[in-house]
Design brief:
Strand 2, helix 6 and strand 3 form a beta-alpha-beta unit. The chain is built from 15 helices and 13 strands. The longest helix has 38 residues. The strands form three sheets. A seven-stranded mixed beta sheet has the order 1-7-6-5-4-2-3, with helices on both faces. Strands 10-11-13-12 form a four-stranded antiparallel beta sheet. The protein folds into two domains: 176 residues, Alpha-Beta Complex (Aspartate Aminotransferase, domain 1), CATH 3.90.1150; 233 residues, Type I PLP-dependent aspartate aminotransferase-like (Major domain) (Aspartate Aminotransferase, domain 2, 3-Layer(aba) Sandwich), CATH 3.40.640.10. The chain is globular, with a radius of gyration of 23 Å. By secondary structure, the protein is α/β, with parallel strands linked by helices. Helix 12 packs across helix 13.
Length: 465
């Protein structure tokens, strides 16, 4: 399959409703009735619900129980007009966000940190990461006079660090991961120089789900007097409970004295509605480099804790409600079910000779093949309704297990379908997956600019009516 054919198929998958529903390139002359609009949305919901309800998609919907959804929707409706920017009008937003930060910090070792742990609520993991990197840039400039800041980031760290590098003009120094898919400590040590403001580790990184050597990396940062950020956006709300359940979880949080900041997504395994995350710091002084304030604007004194000005207070309220309603026992129970599902799934994949697990992850299960085109396996699974994440360097697939997957028979069903997909691809030697040409281009350093433009072209398509 060539790239043009891939683009055509992507257009069809991104715009499947063009022929069946009215398109609005400009405002309708007369507004449509509310009931008509709601009916369209109900129909679209019904068309899309099956993709995630039965666990056929990796990650995406982390809880999805209907009672939980209904509860979150009720909370959102009550707080739909709330805007934390106007804390004098909605002091409830101050209560909710302060308690979200405190509950998250205490879950992540604040009680044993030896320092005050503070933070803010953000719109998601990307904003948490952006803010943390901006904080270290400004800290380095103020405290050390660093005019050309650098951050040391493993190749498996989230793409949001690259985005922060571009947005805030911080040089990103990439370090490799070892055969165990964990960041290389010695390569990190060699990369430190007088311009380094922060080292990054993931708990775990998105691709392979293997927690970086946070203890060693953070001690390295502490010994050089620089910051260390643990990106626990993915694992922050499941690793603490996995540890309590007796699973092997390497140290990654504020119990390590070298960890100076952590990002953790409440809208993933915190089971809040999409649109909230938490970024935390070791001490108020460091957090002040995140805050924005101006005294010169004719509109008056203006200050905000995060990138946004106005923010949807209803999302913070829904996040607070999710955390308080679940409590420790709710999170423990969810983690237990997810990890038991992961154990069953890993055993099943190990039983398929043509596949190999990448490491021994806890809840993000990545696997590759030395014999088959893994993207062809992905295509066959797609025809069966599955939507797993395609990885590259090396080519692989993964599934981030959630409560949606912690249902009786799920792991067994996926293993059976994997066996069928592998058998089909094996019977058709030379079969190439639809993603193979695109990911293949990225293996050529000279093609990376072309690939980036290809991806930006996909975004163009998304915003075309």
């Amino acid at each position: 399959m060539d790239v043009n054919q891939i683009i055509t198929e992507l257009q069809q998958s991104m715009k499947p409703y063009r022929q069946d529903y009215e398109t609005y390139a400009s405002l309708p002359q007369v507004g449509r009735s509310r009931e008509e609009i709601l009916e369209v949305m109900r129909t679209l919901y019904t068309k899309e619900e099956h993709k995630w309800r039965d666990g056929y998609v990796s990650g995406a919907v982390y809880h999805g129980d209907q009672e939980h959804i209904d509860f979150q929707n009720q909370v959102y409706a009550i707080n739909s007009q709330s805007n934390p920017l106007h804390f004098d009008v909605w002091p409830s937003g101050v209560k909710f966000e302060a308690e979200i930060v405190s509950m998250t910090a205490n879950m992540l070792g604040a009680g044993q940190a030896g320092d005050e742990i503070v933070g803010t609520v953000t719109s998601g993991g990307t904003e948490s990461i952006l803010l943390a990197m901006k904080t270290y840039r400004d800290w380095g400039r103020d405290k050390k006079g660093i005019a050309q800041p650098e951050m040391i980031v493993p190749t498996t760290a989230h793409a949001a660090f690259d985005k922060a590098s571009q947005y805030f003009d911080i040089k990103m120094v990439r370090i490799p991961v070892g055969d165990d898919f964990r960041a290389d400590v010695e390569a990190t040590r060699a990369a430190i120089n007088p311009n380094t403001v922060v080292i990054v580790g993931s708990a775990p990184p998105f691709p392979h789900g293997i927690v970086d050597p946070i203890q060693e990396l953070s001690e390295l940062a502490r010994s050089h007097g620089i910051g260390f950020h643990t990106d626990a956006c993915l694992g922050g709300f499941i690793l603490p409970w996995a540890e309590k359940l007796g699973y092997p979880v390497p140290p990654f949080d504020f119990r390590l004295p070298g960890v100076t900041s952590i990002s953790a997504d409440t809208h993933k395994y915190g089971y809040a509605a999409k649109g909230t995350s938490v970024v935390m710091y070791r001490g108020r002084e460091l957090r002040h480099y995140q805050f924005y304030a101006t005294t010169e604007w004719p509109g008056g004194l203006y200050f905000s804790p995060t990138l946004a000005g106005s923010r949807p207070g209803a999302l913070s309220a829904a996040c607070w409600a999710a955390m308080v309603s679940l409590g420790e026992q709710g999170y423990l129970d969810a983690a237990r079910r997810i990890l038991q599902t992961a154990d069953t799934l890993k055993a099943g994949i190990r039983g398929i000779p043509e596949l190999r697990l990448l490491g021994d992850p806890l809840f993000v299960i990545a696997f590759a093949s030395d014999e088959l085109d893994i993207y062809a396996v992905s295509d066959y699974l797609g025809k069966m309704g599955w939507s797993l994440n395609g990885l590259q360097l090396p080519p692989a697939l993964h599934i981030a297990l959630t409560v949606r997957h912690a249902q009786p028979g799920f792991a067994e069903r996926l293993v059976v379908d994997l066996q069928e997909a592998v058998a089909y691809v094996k019977e058709h030697p030379g079969m190439q997956g639809s993603l193979t040409p695109v990911y293949g281009m990225t293996s050529n350093i000279y093609a990376k600019g072309a690939v980036a433009e290809f991806l930006k072209g996909l975004l163009d398509m998304a915003f075309e009516v």
